[in-house]
Amino acid sequence: MTALITSFVNPKGGSGKTVAAVNLAAGIADLAYKVLLVDLDAHASASLALGLKKDPKLGFAGALIADDDIYDFVEKTANTNLDVIKASDDLVAVQVALYNQKEGFLTLKRKLDVLNKNYDYIFIDCPSTFDVLTLNALCASHAFIVPLPCEYYSTSALSTVVEYVNSLEEKGLCHAVLAGILRSYGSNGESVLNEIQNEVVRIFRKNVFKAIIPEDKSLDESIILGRPLVTAMPDSPAAKAFRKLCSEFIYKSPFWLRHN
Questions:
Q1: Looking at residue 209, what is its pLDDT?
Q2: pLDDT tens per residue, range 67-106
Q3: Which end of the chain is less enclosed by CB atoms within 10 A, N or C?
Q4: pTM listed for this prediction
């Protein structure tokens, strides 16, 4: 069994990247697939959203820059079939160490190769920057998802992500394909939403997920509870949209594995 590895990437803060990663991972785990979520952001937002405390002591960074066993950092969550590798404060310091390592951009890939046989899907929540950790995530991935709030200025971030990944591919560093653009309702009103949606669909066509995540106050409530929305409040509008996304993602995922 080879796990499909997918990164969530957007350098713009507040794009809904972590919410998407957590709920897609939890939703697919709820369908009886074995899922691992890797929290690669030092802020540990994905870990906190799953009700797990950020580890202040040396953590996942030890597995990236030393010979620590990656299995030691895998934790069970309250969701059946969903495991997580939590973020820790020392991820900030790992940047320089990986940069100075020979082929340091492949470190995460080598580590995840060890875990591959244990999971159907591995999701990586990337930092909101194009740093060494994001580079590692993309080099380890078969595919990547770009969460996109449909509001002004968000499309520029989308173009930046695509150009960045294309540049890595041209250098032979990365072979991740665009799994899809995940749209969510922005705060600028319906006219702006439709305008941006039409533009994104026109440019990216089949690389846009049909599921659109609506504005939903339940999203904030689930974060406070430390539980994924899809399991905490399954009847909420956003949870239903995420479940549609899960079905769409699973249906398309064999293509991304074949591509690699």
A1: 92
A2: 778 888 899 999 999 999 988 777 767 766 776 666 778 8
A3: N
A4: 0.91
Amino acid at 98: L
Query: Which among 184, 197, 201 has a CA at the least distance from the CA of 238?
Result: 184
Domains in the chain and their CATH numbers? 4-255 (3.40.50.300)
